[in-house]
Design brief:
The protein has two domains: 1-69; 74-207, Ribbon (Umud Fragment, subunit A), CATH 2.10.109.10. It has two helices and twelve strands, in the order H-H-E-E-E-E-E-E-E-E-E-E-E-E. The chain has helices at residues 5-20, 27-68; strands spanning 69-73, 88-93, 102-107, 110-118, 123-126, 132-134, 137-138, 158-159, 164-168, 186-187, 191-200, 206-207. Strands 1, 2, 3, 4, 9, 10, 11 and 12 form an eight-stranded antiparallel beta sheet that branches. Strands 7-6-5-8 form a four-stranded antiparallel beta sheet, with no helix packed on it.
Length: 209
Amino acid sequence: MDAGGWPQFRVRLMDKEKQELPEIPSIELLKEELAREESRYGFRRTLLSAAGVLVVAAAVAALLATRMFVLIQINGNSMDPTLKEGEIVFLRQTKEIETGDVIGFYFGGRILLKRVIGNAGDYIDIDNEGNVSVNGTKIDEPYLAEKSQGKCELEFPYQVPKGMVFVLGDNRAISIDSRIKAIGCVQEDQIVGKAAFRAWPVARMGIMH
């Protein structure tokens, strides 16, 4: 073998070995990959942290809801058209009741919903056409679909006893309320709270005034 062939063979062998060696990534590529891994880890950590916060927030909200609100499904049509059968409302638990509020109160082992018309000491009058007056002044009732004296066992004018409120259903023709002696005026300790939010149906969802 002549001396001129050896160097050529050696060069070809070295070229083949170089082709088989794995490519070593650059420092820049390593830094980029490390940054991506750290970003993914940071995202997972943030996601887990956010999930934990949401779980805690949901637990706190549920606890507050049971202490501050009572969920009621409407049964019957005595508050129509303000509240219709099957609708779901939240009652905010409070004893701070004003005239015009729709309140829930305990009666016969269940919660009834009616509208406050008069407070203790007020004189209530309902004429034959269903017009309601409080202390001699006829009140405006835009929430009514139709006025009616309905079934009434009281003599008017009627004074609301101390520590009580006088309530009527918005569907005056059929509502059983303070006009009937079996129910009468509502004592303060019977009151659960007032209707604050309609949760169902979606089309009528919203804050109640």
